[in-house]
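User: I'm preparing a small set of examples for a lab meeting where we compare how different chains pack in three dimensions. I only have the primary sequence for this one, and I'd like the structure in token form so I can line it up with the others. Please keep the answer compact; I'll paste it straight into my notes.
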Amino acid sequence: MTALSVNINKIALLRNSRGRDFPNLVEFSKKLISLGVDGITVHPREDERHITKKDAVELGRLLSGNPAVEFNVEGYPSEAFLTLVEQIKPAQCTLVPDSPQQLTSDHGWDLETEGEFVRDVCVRLNRAGIRSAIFIDPEINQIKRVPDTKAARVELYTERYAATFNTPSHEEVFERYKAAACEAQRLGIGVNAGHDLDLHNLPKFLTISDVLEVSIGHVLTIECIEQGMASVIGRYLEICASSGRSRT
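Assistant: Understood. Below is the structure token output for the 248-residue chain.
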């Protein structure tokens, strides 16, 4: 079974737009947990446009007492970010190569030029007892370099998969993701996935064997508004359960 981790950045953005603590992220996360999600994901940025450092600490405190639900903190590994992660000690830290100015993550690491930097960060996280994951495009040449970084997992950046869904080019794109996932697994690297996955395109993606986790936020939030939170979370969990992977 594939684990479902819900990214709550958009909930934080809604809260921040009103200048008050509503919705409260801890209480909102408790609702998600009660509905059966496997994890909570946050992506704190320097400008705190959505998730703040205070949010990350409070959510870390909540989830440290619930070993059945993993906390995934993702972001660019600046010294300030890494210090925060080491303070929180989430189950997983996903390294993303985005700049402070980016609206959202839009590419994976180039391990040919950035591999040494990524390796130093992964070693630091591993020593702290935090599972390291790196955001990466579905390119075989990049996947082959992952073992040198000492990362435990990759998170495949799935924007291209989502953008081509139900188009003539989709099958070729899907096969590229499948090949990348298989190569990572052959090398002993766990596979996560995320970015623009939704109720319509996720079932096909999870025909790829042994995807450990999907992290979904933006579209899931919109689907919850349109269809109701309990219904949407329930449908995602059904899709993940049908992937045939027992969580490890």
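A couple of notes for your slides: The beta strands are 3-7, 39-42, 70-75, 92-95, 131-136, 153-157, 190-194, 211-216. Residues 118 and 198 are 29 Å apart (CA to CA).

User: Perfect, thanks.
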